[in-house]
Amino acid sequence: MGYEVHAENGWVSRGSLYRLKELMKRAERGDRLTLAFLGGSITQGSVSTQYTNCYAYRVYEWFVRRFPKTAFTYINAGVGGTTSQFGVARADEDVLAYKPDFVIIEFSVNDDNTDFYQETYEGLVRKVYGNVYEPAVLLVHNMYYDTGNSAEEKHREIGTHYKLPSVSMKTTIYPEVASGVIPNREITPDDLHPNTNGHELVAEVITDCLDRIYMQRREEEAPAGMPEPVTANAYAQARRYQNHNSNPVCDGFTADNTLKKYVNDMFRCGWTASEAGASIVFETEGTEIAVQYRKSVNRPAPVAIAVVDGDEAGAVTLDANFEEDWGDCLYIDTVLYHGRPGKHKVEIRLAETHEDDAVPFYLVSVIGA
Questions:
Q1: Do the beta carbons of residue 306 and residue 318 sit within 8 Å?
Q2: For 181-208, what is each residue's pLDDT tens digit?
Q3: I need a surface site. Which of 68, 72, 264, 360 has the fewest CB within 10 A?
């Protein structure tokens, strides 16, 4: 490729290196270790020519080369088009169930730079960093290549508070693109997703940080504790309700029992309905509720509403018609935000159907926290 970035500028927050140093010491001993990558489409490897060219796999390869005595397990839990609001709800099943020793978290181009996503991101960080197996955590911040925009500002505040090391593409790759040294179309087709060349640069920034930590691994460091939260912290215990772990009251909704084949095979384990008036009712406990459903490029599609605790006037519209053309979208609508603590009832009801509907309404999950 021939392009260079100042990878040494990428390590934007040192944080506590205790867990990463311990990880590297274990790797030197030959302990079997699990490396997990949790994020959106960039982590998934979108538009790289093959999965081994994505940044996550390249980071995995860095560990394999650096520690040849160790057997590493590679977990890629990237799901395109999803935010940390979904990440925190699926972290238990998609990442923590594998008892990871190392986790990269990457959601800075999926989240908006708002207080809401700072709170969901903090919930995710607390869930992963606070896990009983104490994984080493590294935060990765990508950005839009045309504007430099991302949620990095809000995310870095969380990383700094929790003393987590983090790396940034905005301080490394973006300056070279903005100045014209690297033509943006050489590394990204859409100013969002890095192509194979772009993934190579992202991996270079991350592994440069890991190289620097490796050089410091013998220097003693005290572990960092779990601080008090920055936000209202309503999302750290988020969970998903799907047909394999919940028992909602269904009237016209049918469970989809098709086997889920892989982590981003997302339109599975939910419920479908096609007739107006069909309803499904869940009971949750907490202060937050979100409804996750399919927005489809195959139109027309049904329109549903979500009613919390019988509040018809405050019903949220769930329109399954997707106006984009890149494919069906896994969409989340928040229907209760910082509500009263305790039990809540949420009803999803089909409000509008059409004789020529191309697809049924697909309810993927309800998320409660």
A1: yes
A2: 999 999 999 999 999 999 999 999 999 9
A3: 68
